[in-house]
Amino acid sequence: MPRDDSNVIENDTKGGSDTHSVEEEPPCMCPTEFAVRRFSNGTCGCDCFDKERDCLRYKKGKEYFSLKDKWCIKIGKCQPPICEYGKFSQKTGRCPRLNEKSPFF
Asked: Which of 4, 40, 51, 91 could cross-link 29 (Cys pair, CB 3.0–4.6 Å)?
C-alpha cells in the first residue's frame, strides 16, 4: 500500500491576531517501502531512512517494485523513489543496480 503524508498540516499564525490560517500542502505519495520527505522548496521526494533494510534493497535495485507501486508511479499518483545509482526505471520496475549505474549520475 503506497504511503502518503496527507495528514500533515502546517499551522501558520499571522501577527498577534486570534485567527489561525492553516496551510495544507498537497499530499505526496510514495511507493510502499519508502518514506515521504518534504524539502524546504516545497517539493517532496520518496527516500529511505538509514536503517530500513527492506527499503534500502529497493533503493539499490535489489528488489522489484510491486505491480501496485509501479502503477502508482506510472499514473503519477506516487512520486518515483530516490534511487542509489540513478533514476527509477519504469521499464524494469526497479531502481538501477550498482553495475547499471549511468556514467552521468
From this structure: 4
